[in-house]
Amino acid sequence: MSEWIDVGALDDIAPRGARLVKTPLGCVAVFRTYEDEVFALDNACPHKKGPLAEGIVHGKSVTCPLHNWVISLETGQAQGADEGSVATYPARVEDGRIWLERSFLQMRTAAE
Amino acid sequence: MTQKIIVIGAGMASGRMLEHLFDANADVAVTLFNAEPRGNYNRIMLSPVLAGDQTYQDIVTHDDDWYADNKVITRFGEKIVAIDREAKTVTADNGDVLAYDKLVFGTGSNPFMIPLPGHDLEGVIAYRDLEDTERMMGLEAGQKAVVIGGGLLGLEAAAGMAARGVDVTVVHIMGHLMERQLDEAAGYLLRKALIDKGITVKCAANSKEILGEDGKVKALLLDDGTELPCDLLVMAVGIRPNVALAQEAGLMVGKGIHVDDQMLTSDADVLAVGECVEHDGALFGLVAPLYDQAKVAAQTLMGEEAAFVQKELSTKLKVTGCDLFSAGDFAEADGREDIVFRDPARGVYKRLVIEENRVVGAVFYGDTADSNWFFGLIKDKTDISDMRDTLIFGPAYQGGDALDPMAAVAALPLDAEICGCNGICKGQIVEAIEAGATDLGAVRATTKASASCGTCTGLVEQVLAVTLGDDFQMPAAEPMCGCTDLTHEDVRRLIKSQELKSMAAVMQELGWKTSCGCAKCRPALNYYLLADWPVEYQDDPQSRFINERKHANIQKDGTFSVVPRMWGGITTPDELRAIADAADKYEVPTVKVTGGQRIDLLGVKGEDLPDIWADLNAAGMVSGHAYSKGLRTVKTCVGTDHCRFGTQDSTGLGIKLEKDLWGSWTPHKLKLGVSGCPRNCAEATCKDIGIVCVDSGYQVSIGGAAGMEVKETKLLIQVANEEEVMEVVRAVTQLYREGAKYLDRIWKWMDKVGLDWIKEQIEDLEIRKAAAARFDLSQSIYRRDPWADHVKEKADTYKPMKEIRLEAAE
Ligand code: SRM
Ligand SMILES: Cc1cc2nc3c(=O)[nH]c(=O)nc-3n(C[C@H](O)[C@H](O)[C@H](O)COP(=O)(O)OP(=O)(O)OC[C@H]3O[C@@H](n4cnc5c(N)ncnc54)[C@H](O)[C@@H]3O)c2cc1C
Ligand code: SF4
Ligand code: FES
């Protein structure tokens, strides 16, 4: 069963920006690209847990603010020579609202 | 059978000819005579030697080993005095008679001495050889010299002596300097630059007599009665081909020794190369055509077919700080049109003369970066009708392909001059590279290209890159990032000249390869745009590093640090109380005194930032920008207020400066220091801009740093009062803001443009005031505390957009 949670308006996030969704299990970073796609990832860089939501968003990637790893928003994989990945969660935009799939919370619980 | 060759004169032309012969392993036995007591050296580099930038050793082109390796019999310090063409022998000045199979004249030219009364006095010299150069170098600082002649040589002599502290006056008969190469406007700029170097310039001045005392020069007397006292008088008014010996030998001689396309004289066993020849009615005074002649002469000697062809010539002046280029013909004439570009603020002047859709002449002053490209247009007689509108802006503006500077270099013909100082063409550099010189240092060592003024370093590197392909890693001309092939410098230039005022415009017009840039280029572009178009451009927070987006410094655990400004390091009990209250209220784990004379609250949660700042703002404090590529702190000492040694109010001045400069964005961080006396307790001399107060005023120096590199500042100017300090600081900050590459601190920028150039701008009151005014304009927009806005309008964005409880998941 899939169920979607409304986490806010698309316009709450600046294009090429990110906002956090707080859960009891840590923060999820929701990104908005230049083309108005949205992506949801754990807000913790695979390198040293840098807060990805504070990074610079470019294309479908974000550059971590702490040591400049570049993380793919689609796959959560570190790009280039760096290795590591971060969990990604289904997200979509409808009628100007951003929706995350409820199951992401369960996945996070399972991952703990 | 081995050919016996006798060469008269070890000059630049004959030396090059010998290189060609030996490179081709020609079967020759060479005897080389030279009236100068030394072998081949790079005569044109006497000017850098005079200026103290190089030594004689640096400019020797052929040393003893080279002659020995090639079995050249050298007879330096010996002249040929007679030639018997029937017997095919020459006579040296010691009476030796030697037989030749082929004879080569490379006797160069003699400097022309105006036969003024007194021209034979001791202390009247020409500028031609090492002896002349050493005479000039023998002058002490403060001694006086007069140079007659405001052409290339005269000005290089004048600038070289002035660099040694000699008090120099240039006397020029025409209305403006270098009238053969420059038009009036460029001559004017050049004159201004020389005057700024402390050289006195007298144009339209007629010399009447050289006055002496005890057989030694004392002064130059002008027509109008002016007397110019001097210890040395240098005449640099022109040269005459050295033809006397050839004439006596019965060769055909006009103004120079007549030669045909094969460099043969009227005697098929006698050749001539260099300044001593006349070819098709023309004489020569620059090295580029002489090198062509040398090659042809070598081929003729080896029995190969070759023909010398005259080409367009270009001129560059080897005076540091005077970037000047001219080529072709720019006299006004019917059917000719001018395209002129002036940038008074930068002292740039460019003029192209167009005739029938071809460029026939070009003069550049102040910015000669694209001169090779224009010279190519002249030489190739390129039809420019398609690019006329943007022509003056250079190759970077001519459509898609040419945007790539590498393609432009690849397209240069082999005879395109790359290094003007050394007369080195692309072909020679390519040869050197193919022979194993695979980096800049090696190319410099083997060809001398880019070894003197260095302005062509970038071009040489591009030739390396084009020739070596993937084997060469371009050090300097690195593209900004993977999104573009353009360098920072290219992009800055294009933003200004194409008036690109938004990030979208830059990416569109300059062909960015990505949809929205990357974390490297976007912060740089955002800076360039806001610095160049403060009024039009809208700052883009999403293109800023998090510290500048949230106006706080991110810590390794994702929390932030908060540093309010303490103007000039001065605080009050109220401010301290407000800081203490904030630290309590927001449970700040660490409170630290920084190295910049203020207090750092470390470990503040991102969500709390708007609130803590609302409190600090309420207590009258603003952001300290401790996170920014912008003004950081102005460190001060106690100065006259309390200190027994203080000479001026260093604290007060520091506060004024900080209040003036805060909020401004700069290419890298900008730190100032103001010390009340030379004891320098505020460490002003290792700041980006440092002010040291002295009894008579204020010494403003720039380019210090104490980070990864420790740099001492260099004196920019000394001024008398605070108003002037403020203006100078605003002006130099603005020049840095407009000119530097993103993430270059002042010292790096200074290394690139030269302290001399910065001084010239600052010393010119008009330029200084204009730069300060541009700074003020930008500050009218940017000098504001970001937190006032963020607290009011953006506070939400610091908080999570949603909080989800666990139950929701079930
Ligand atoms: C807070 C402070 C240290 C302190 O506790 O005293 C400090 C802290 C940092 N410095 Fe510094 N610097 C501080 C004074 C200095 C000084 C001393 C000075 O200014 O008198 C220097 C040497 C002087 C100089 O800049 O030339 C200094 C040279 C650097 C450098 C090397 C710069 C360089 O050109 O080589 C960096 C790295 C950079 O900027 O790229 C740097 C970078 C940093 C950063 C911003 C690194 C970062 O990006 O996170 C540090 C932030 C710490 C934090 O979490 O807040 N910091 N830093 C000082 C803040 C002064 C202030 O009130 O604003
Ligand atoms: C200070 C200075 C700066 C210059 N800057 C530039 C520049 O930036 N760009 C440029 O293109 N050009 C420049 N020139 C001009 C350039 O140096 C000359 O064009 C070039 O050196 C001429 O070469 P050459 O071989 O014909 O003669 P030279 O290099 O003058 O050599 C001739 C040699 O022949 C010797 N000689 C003469 N007669 C006899 C004899 N009877 N027996 C034996 N030996 C004899 C002389 O002693 C001399 O050493 C500059 C010249 C000077 C002086
Ligand atoms: S620099 Fe001079 S004025 Fe400043 S504190 Fe030191 S001694 Fe006093
Ligand atoms: S924590 Fe993200 S790059 Fe180091």
Keywords:
heterodimer, A: 112 residues, mainly beta, Rieske Iron-sulfur Protein, four-stranded antiparallel sheet, three-stranded antiparallel sheet, 1 helix, 8% helix, globular, B: 810 residues, alpha/beta, FAD/NAD(P)-binding domain, Enolase-like, domain 1, 6 domains, five-stranded parallel sheet, 29 helices, binds siroheme, binds flavin-adenine dinucleotide, binds iron/sulfur cluster, binds FE2/S2 (inorganic) cluster, heme (chain B), NADP binding (chain B), heme binding (chain B), nitrite reductase activity (chain B), metal-binding (chain B)
Task: Provide a descriptive summary of the structure in words.
The complex is a heterodimer of chains A (112) and B (810). Helix content of chain A is 8%, strand content 40%. Chain A is globular and about 40 Å long. In chain A, a hairpin with a 2-residue loop joins strand 5 and strand 6. Chain A has one domain: Rieske Iron-sulfur Protein. The longest helix of chain A is centred in the C-terminal third of the chain and has 9 residues. In chain A, the strands form three sheets. In chain A, strands 2-3-4-8 form a four-stranded antiparallel sheet, with no helix packed on it. With 112 residues, chain A is mainly β. With 810 residues, chain B is an alpha/beta fold. Chain B folds into six domains: 169 residues, FAD/NAD(P)-binding domain; 114 residues, FAD/NAD(P)-binding domain, CATH 3.50.50; 80 residues, Enolase-like, domain 1 (2-Layer Sandwich); 127 residues, Orthogonal Bundle (Arc Repressor Mutant, subunit A); 77 residues, Sulfite Reductase Hemoprotein, domain 2 (Alpha-Beta Complex); 152 residues, Sulfite Reductase Hemoprotein, domain 1. Helices cover 33% and strands 22% of the residues of chain B. Chain B is built from 29 helices and 41 strands. In chain B, the strands form twelve sheets. A five-stranded parallel sheet of chain B has the order 3-2-1-7-19, with no helix packed on it. In chain B, helix 12 packs across helix 15, helix 13 crosses helix 15 and helix 16 runs parallel beside helix 18. Chain B is elongated, with a radius of gyration of 32 Å. Chains A and B meet through strand 1, strand 2, strand 5 and helix 1 of A and helix 19, strand 41 and helix 29 of B. Strand 2 of chain A pairs parallel with strand 41 of chain B. The complex binds siroheme, flavin-adenine dinucleotide, iron/sulfur cluster (SF4) and FE2/S2 (inorganic) cluster. The site of flavin-adenine dinucleotide has 35 residues of chain B, from helix 1, strand 2, helix 2, helix 6 and helix 9.
